[in-house]
Design a protein that fits this description.
Blueprint lengths: L9 H25 L9 H30 L1 H20 L16 H14 L1 H22 L1 H8 L5 H27 L1 H21 L3 H29 L5 H31 L1 H22 L3 H6 L5 H7 L11
Helix pairs in contact: 1-10, 2-3, 2-7, 2-9, 4-10, 5-8, 5-9, 5-10, 5-11, 6-7, 7-8, 7-9, 8-9, 8-11, 10-11
Length: 333
């Protein structure tokens, strides 16, 4: 409605985005804590990957639909269609018939005490602490590219639709990455994935910083989508795997708050550095190198990092159970 009325001031748009962020912050932990109740433990990463794959399908298809609807009816109609899609998702969730147990009744006067208790529970979990720190470090180096795609597009080419094309490329890469991460994790192990995927995301940020043509920028964003967002799926799966069922929603809430805060803070800090010191491309280059240095330091200096991430996944019986099964050929293999 605001866009339809011709408002272009940053203040009302920022308030609307704030409200949208609050809604997502309420919904995401509840949604995330629901998934482990719908699938067996050994299929959790596959379920999260499927969830990420469907979400990233929207990221890939959405910009193309936006280009079409904006051309035909304008941006207000495009945003209205997006609003309808959220309503449809809510209707789909209502169709789930399996009983999902909540955490009990909490009165409003217990609000702050519940937050403190949740923070203590999250802090008591070595898995949550490790993943929150790991995710925050990753956000430090990749959030800039996430949040500056339109600005970056203007530095690459003057093609009007390049920002939408870059978002579509990133969404397509994320779709492929989410589709394949469960199988890759089963074959090489979770800790190797937790190292390989951020490393490749750093390579994508490096390529993006060097790209001066639309094709190379599209490839860099495709590569970034394939490994960057999917890394967060892998890290979140570790938290969901080890969080106790009776407090999973609370722990995921604290984890989501930490991830969201680090994204916002590091995006603003990176944008400030890009605007006032290094420029966008040089800041992205520093981010890529910094990410690699941190990954190397973690693998060399933090001996328990791999063990915490792998958890019971290092059990050969579990890994054998999660590997894809193929029928034997004529020789019996």
């Amino acid at each position: 409605v605001v866009i339809h009325d011709g408002v272009r001031s940053t203040a009302p748009l920022t308030i609307i985005i704030l409200i949208q962020g609050v809604a997502q912050a309420l919904a995401n932990p509840a949604y995330g804590s629901m998934i482990p109740l719908l699938v067996p433990r050994e299929e959790l990463l596959g379920a999260l990957s499927l969830s990420g794959m469907t979400w990233n399908t929207g990221r890939a298809v959405g910009p193309a639909l936006a280009a079409l609807t904006i051309t035909l009816w304008g941006p207000a109609a495009s945003i209205a269609g997006n609003a309808v899609s959220f309503a449809l998702m809510g209707l789909v969730l209502i169709t789930i018939k399996r009983p999902l147990h909540g955490g009990g009744t909490v009165h409003l006067r217990q609000f702050w005490s519940e937050i403190r208790q949740s923070a203590r529970k999250a802090g008591a979990s070595v898995t949550t602490r490790t993943m929150m720190l790991t995710t925050s470090v990753l956000q430090l180096f990749v959030s800039l590219l996430f949040s500056t795609v339109p600005t970056y597009a203007r530095q690459v080419d003057h093609w009007k639709r390049l920002p939408m094309a870059l978002f579509a490329a990133m969404g397509t890469g994320a779709l492929i990455g989410a589709f394949s991460i469960a199988g890759v994790t089963a074959r090489i192990g979770r800790s190797r994935v937790a190292t390989l995927y951020p490393t490749m995301a750093g390579l994508a940020v490096l390529l993006a910083s060097l790209a001066h043509s639309a094709p190379l920028a599209l490839f860099a964003l495709f590569l970034f989508g394939m490994f960057g967002p999917v890394s967060f799926i892998s890290f979140g799966a570790v938290v969901q795997r080890d969080a106790p069922e009776q407090s999973r929603g609370r722990i995921l809430s604290i984890y989501s708050a930490g991830v969201g805060f680090s994204f916002g803070a590091f995006s603003i800090a990176g944008g400030y550095i890009a605007d006032h010191a290094l420029g966008l491309r040089h800041t992205m280059l520093v981010c890529a190198i910094g990410l690699w240095v941190c990954l190397l330091a973690v693998r060399i200096g933090w001996k328990d990092w791999c063990r915490i991430i792998n958890g019971r996944d290092s059990d050969p019986k579990w890994r054998a159970a999660t590997l894809p099964r193929f029928p034997a050929d004529a020789t019996g293999r």
